[in-house]
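Lab meeting, item 3. Inverse folding demo.
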């Protein structure tokens, strides 16, 4: 059985049938994706997602990445406008509010944070929110993995980006050392790391090639492909004991270091410009 690749429409065979979902991989662009019909127990972005499952991730925002992305504001005038789609708790927007107080900041999320001075929050997603304006900088961090129709999602973001503006997309890297190790452990019978990396709220597992192919197919020009990891303190593990959690981080340190040396980092951020 094959399924059409959501990025390039090539017939794609089954790669793994893990507990959360059946994973297919495209032979043309190497994109890995979950079959939504195979998901028996869908996960959601409920309060437990923020407070328990990914408590370290949300307690430790990726400030180095925020600093890297914020550099692009310098070329966008004294009062740039920014839209963060899937803004979560608003960490990136709050960072910009502190470092670029003249910027106009807007965030979209299913469960946006409470209103605060200097930042406008809209409830919904890219498909449901009506915005009749464009922005100098449009960002989305770890959100492009979620929508079924990724082309429609990218077109929506592109249309919100003014001509000459920047679109920034951060996603995991399915060909990272971390993912490769999880696949190896899966074949050896240890399923948990693989299943955690392929949680059901992420339908798409991009690699460097498939993410660039998606963005350029929608008329965007890649300016930078930034390869990086997340802060180590932002890594979540299934351990309940703080000591066990720290022990589990030791191999993560090694995988992050090897990924940095080989260009196979856990995360990737692509900066595009709309023509």
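The presenter then showed the designed sequence:
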């Amino acid at each position: 059985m094959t399924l059409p690749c959501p990025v390039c429409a090539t017939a794609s065979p089954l790669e793994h049938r893990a507990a959360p979902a059946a994973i297919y991989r495209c032979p043309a662009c190497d994109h890995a994706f979950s079959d939504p019909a195979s998901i028996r127990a869908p996960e959601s972005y409920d309060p437990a997602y923020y407070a328990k499952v990914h408590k370290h991730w949300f307690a430790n925002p990726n400030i180095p990445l925020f600093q890297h992305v914020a550099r692009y504001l310098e070329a966008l005038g004294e009062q740039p406008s920014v839209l963060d789609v899937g803004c979560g708790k608003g960490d990136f927007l709050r960072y910009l509010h502190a470092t670029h107080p003249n910027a106009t900041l807007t965030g979209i999320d299913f469960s946006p944070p409470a209103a605060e001075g200097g930042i406008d929050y809209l409830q919904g997603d890219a498909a449901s929110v009506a915005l009749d304006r464009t922005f100098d900088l449009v960002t989305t961090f770890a959100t492009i993995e979620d929508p079924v129709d990724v082309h429609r999602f990218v077109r929506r973001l592109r249309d919100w980006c003014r001509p000459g503006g920047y679109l920034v997309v951060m996603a995991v890297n399915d060909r990272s050392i971390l993912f490769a190790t999880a696949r190896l452990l899966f074949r050896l019978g240890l399923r948990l790391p693989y299943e955690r990396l392929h949680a059901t709220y992420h339908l798409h597992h991009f690699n460097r090639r498939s993410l660039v192919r998606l963005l350029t197919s929608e008329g965007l020009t890649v300016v930078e492909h930034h390869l990086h990891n997340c802060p180590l303190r932002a890594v979540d593990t299934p351990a309940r004991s703080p000591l066990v959690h720290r022990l589990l981080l030791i191999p993560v340190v090694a995988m992050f270091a090897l990924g940095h040396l080989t260009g196979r980092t856990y995360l990737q951020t692509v900066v595009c410009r709309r023509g």
